[in-house]
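Look over both lines before class:
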Amino acid sequence: MIKDLRLHGSLGPVDFFAFVSGPDTLNTYFYEEEPGSIRFFARGNELTISHSGVSYRGSGGSFCGYMFGVDKPLKDLEKEDVHNRLIMFGAVMDEQEKVVFTNDTEGSETFYRLFLQGHAVTNYYFLVASDTDRDYKKRQKQVLKSVGKFLKRTDLVSLSRDTELLEAFCSELREKKSMVFIFKLINRANREYYEAYRDFYARSKTLSPQEALYLTEIVERNNIDHYQQERMKIDVMYLHPDNRMVVDEYRDILIQGLADDTLQASEQARLNRLRTLSIRNNIPVVLFDTLDDLLLRDKKVLETEEHEYLKEARAILENLFFKGVALKRHIIKEDIVRLIKAKHMAYAQNDRGFEQILLDIGRACDEFSREHDDFSVFEEFSSIVTYFDRYDNVQALLSQLSFMKDSEFREDALRSLVGNKKEFDGLESGLFRTLFIKDLLGNKYITSYGRLRLKLVVKGIENILNGEASYRDVINELTSLAAEEELYFVLHAALKERMRSFFPGLELKEVRDQIRQDIARELAEKGFPARIPVKLFERVFLDLRKESVYLNQILPKVIQAKDAYLREDFLQNSGLDRFYLESLEREYFEEKGLDLTLLEPLRAGVS
């Protein structure tokens, strides 16, 4: 016997599915088509889908999956099992943020607002029709009590398991005589963009030039708002498993600190550490910025006045977009440079202000374009945003090159850097080095091989532009350096193991030569070169000696005297990678049974 039905259709920008279950489903006339719309109805309840939006009345509501970065109620944020947003018809929030029900359950929503305020791709409505629907206020409370917890917590929404969703809904409702309608609305344009970006991002957590062009074609063909694009990008980036783990940890720390008026210094230090870790793991900083915006809000740590460079950036953009036609002027090269430098200063200081300005301006451009049917302002803004996209692309490539071991650097990435260097230096001589190279070389967490890779690429770009080298020449040099780096770490592990037994003998060069030859034979069997360069071996030996001195002599003194300056002096002058030494510190504390919280003030004690 048939228990439920499914109808599928398209209207305006959406595909819709209607799932119906209840008594006498086959014998009940529950929908009618009119020019430009379709109306579903049963026992005084109805929902109409038209070319522009949805209208409804009766017992029911709407729900959708929470996108990352939406303004989510704190009580939902605190519960890890709450996945979905639920709105009941006729329900409003009072001043104490409590749900109050009314009998006014009639309303409507345009598709534009629905997919902007709800999920960008998929949203659901539902109706529950029964013979007891006369008092909507009372009825809505009953329905919420039955299915509210299920709808907010189920993962069937994100998994698009709609048949199971309908069955589970009816099971939770426990009303055999009621008819249940679930309507699924999908924005076709947003779905195309979301799925394409998700597939591209899953491959390498970055976009190739060809993939970026493909997305641009989707945007232009479907006229997708910049603000909506950013919402979808952020959601995709967050849902990547590598990103989600670190970002959820960051979120949990923020939530723990919400009971206080300000974040404690220890909490702020842990947040900063997670941000630093994100650099190594190529996690977009915008994910952390979004959480800060959602959760910190009125915390005193954020109560700072807007910096002058942000005021200048806002003034440039406002003059360009929001003045009368007689006053509007096109942006000039010097203005672009000021904006790029403002973005760079915000990036260097983890200042979310610049990105917020862009979101404000982008939203205002969208509203202006729709109200006046004039997209020239939006097009001008998009041309400016292109420079910021270039900036983000270069930062991502060079950060990955400088901080991530075993990262593959392909020829298309090198071509992208060469093209971007031309663009930035074309705006202002030396701008590329000022924006990207200087700060990276001065970053205390850059690895020794990361520094070598960065310098090699910078020199290679110069040689390519001067006609002294080809792209293949530079890639070959990077490949050779990568092989040396791999050999360094394999040799480091092998020699470290031997030093536990032969450390006294290693003071003698002939002993080291013998061990070098023994290790070379072992590694040759694993595909490494049959000969280990003496210079590389001696470097590894010296680095291991430095590690031993630090762990056995320096670190105990640092801990006993709580001397952060002694620790910092060694880290700056030893030439050893800071991230690696910090991992050794953690192992030392764990082996000695020491309190790991003692590390935080030592690491934060010297800026």
In short: Residues 322-329 have pLDDT under 50 and may be disordered. The CA atoms of residues 69 and 290 lie 6 Å apart. The radius of gyration is 30 Å. The first helix runs from residue 74 to 77.
